[in-house]
C-alpha cells in the first residue's frame, strides 16, 4: 500500500475557490501512467501535477501533467500549484528548482516572503505560427459565438506557444467576452484540423490600469470546456503581443497582468514578464500566488 501525499491548490490567487484549481501528488515515484491518469480523473481538475525524484544529475526533479483524459506536456497553473506544494511540504527557502518536463528542463523559482511563497515559472521557447486563412478563421469565430465585427483588427488570429499551444483571438469588448457561448463540439472538431487544443479569447477592454487584458480559454478537445486562469495562455500572449508589435516596451522588457475567470467566478491574475532581444520575445516567465484548499492522502 502506497500513501500518496496529495494537495488541491488554487493558483493565481490567495482566495480559496478562486483562481485555477490543480491537483498535486508530491511523492509520485513508482506510479504508472494508468494510475496517474486515474488519479487525475478522480480529482477532476483541469490538470493534476505529479512530482518525481530526479532521474539524473541535470535536474532537481521530474514533473508530469495529466488532464482527466490525457497527459499534456506542460501546464502553467499546475506548475505554480506543484512548486507551491513542494515548498510547503519541504519547508523550502527561496530557491530555483530545475524541473524536467516534456518540453525540457525548466527553472522554476520559489520566492519565500513572510512565511508564504510566490512561484515564478520560466516557460518553454516561444513560437508563433502564421495567421490562419480566412476560411479557418471564420470557422473559429463562428464556433466561439463571435462575429467578424467583434475581432480586434490589430490582433491576427494565430497559434502561439511556450510548449502547449493556444490560438490567440483578440476581441474589442469585455462584455462580449463574458457573453460568449462557444459551440464546444465545433471547437473540438476544429482542434483536430489545426493541431491545437486551446482557444484563448482576450481583450484590452479593462477598467484598471493594473490589468492589461481579460481573457477566457476554451479547450474542449482535451476535456476542458473552460479553463479558469491559464498560465500557458497568458504567457504566450505576452510573446504574441511583442511579436506582432501590438504593445510598446522599454529596456527590452515587457510586463503586464492578465486577469481571467471573471465569467465563471474564479478570478485570478497572471503576472507576465517578457524579456526581449532584437525586438523579439526571448524569455517568457509567469508569476503567481497560490493557496491550499486541502491536503490529503490517497492509498493505492
TrEMBL record:
Q: Which Pfam families match?
A: PhzC-PhzF
Q: Which UniProt keywords apply?
A: Isomerase
Family of the protein in this entry: Belongs to the PhzF family.
Protein name (record): PhzF family isomerase
Q: Please give the NCBIfam families that the UniProt record associates with this protein.
A: PhzF_family, PRK10281.1
Q: Which organism is it from?
A: Flavobacterium soyae
User: Which Gene Ontology molecular function entries are recorded, alphabetically?
Assistant: isomerase activity
Amino acid at each position: 500500500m502506497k500513501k500518496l501525499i496529495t494537495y488541491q491548490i488554487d493558483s493565481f490567487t490567495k482566495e480559496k475557490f478562486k483562481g485555477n484549481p490543480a491537483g498535486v501528488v508530491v511523492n509520485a515515484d513508482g506510479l504508472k501512467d494508468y494510475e496517474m491518469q486515474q488519479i487525475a480523473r478522480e480529482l477532476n481538475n483541469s490538470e493534476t501535477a505529479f512530482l518525481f525524484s530526479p532521474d539524473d544529475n541535470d535536474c532537481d526533479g521530474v514533473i508530469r501533467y495529466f488532464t482527466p483524459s490525457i497527459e499534456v506536456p506542460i501546464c502553467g497553473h499546475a506548475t505554480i500549484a506543484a512548486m507551491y506544494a513542494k515548498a510547503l511540504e519541504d519547508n523550502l527557502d527561496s530557491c530555483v528548482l530545475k524541473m524536467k518536463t516534456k518540453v525540457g528542463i525548466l527553472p522554476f523559482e520559489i520566492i519565500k516572503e513572510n512565511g508564504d511563497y510566490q512561484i515564478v515559472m520560466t516557460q518553454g521557447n516561444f513560437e508563433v505560427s502564421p495567421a490562419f486563412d480566412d476560411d479557418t478563421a471564420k470557422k473559429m469565430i463562428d464556433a466561439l459565438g463571435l462575429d467578424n465585427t467583434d475581432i480586434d483588427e490589430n490582433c491576427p488570429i494565430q497559434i502561439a506557444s511556450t510548449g502547449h499551444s493556444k490560438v490567440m483571438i483578440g476581441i474589442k469588448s469585455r462584455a462580449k467576452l463574458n457573453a460568449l457561448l462557444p459551440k464546444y463540439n465545433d471547437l473540438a472538431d476544429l482542434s483536430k484540423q489545426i493541431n491545437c487544443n486551446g482557444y484563448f479569447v482576450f481583450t484590452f477592454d479593462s477598467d484598471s490600469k493594473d490589468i492589461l487584458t481579460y481573457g477566457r480559454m476554451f479547450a474542449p478537445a482535451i476535456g476542458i470546456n473552460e479553463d479558469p486562469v491559464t498560465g500557458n495562455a497568458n504567457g504566450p500572449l505576452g510573446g504574441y503581443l511583442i511579436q506582432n508589435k501590438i504593445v510598446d516596451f522599454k529596456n527590452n522588457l515587457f510586463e503586464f497582468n492578465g486577469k481571467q475567470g471573471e465569467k465563471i467566478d474564479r478570478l485570478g491574475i497572471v503576472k507576465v514578464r517578457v524579456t526581449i532581444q532584437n525586438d523579439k520575445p526571448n524569455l517568457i516567465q509567469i508569476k503567481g500566488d497560490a493557496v491550499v484548499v486541502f491536503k490529503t492522502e490517497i492509498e493505492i
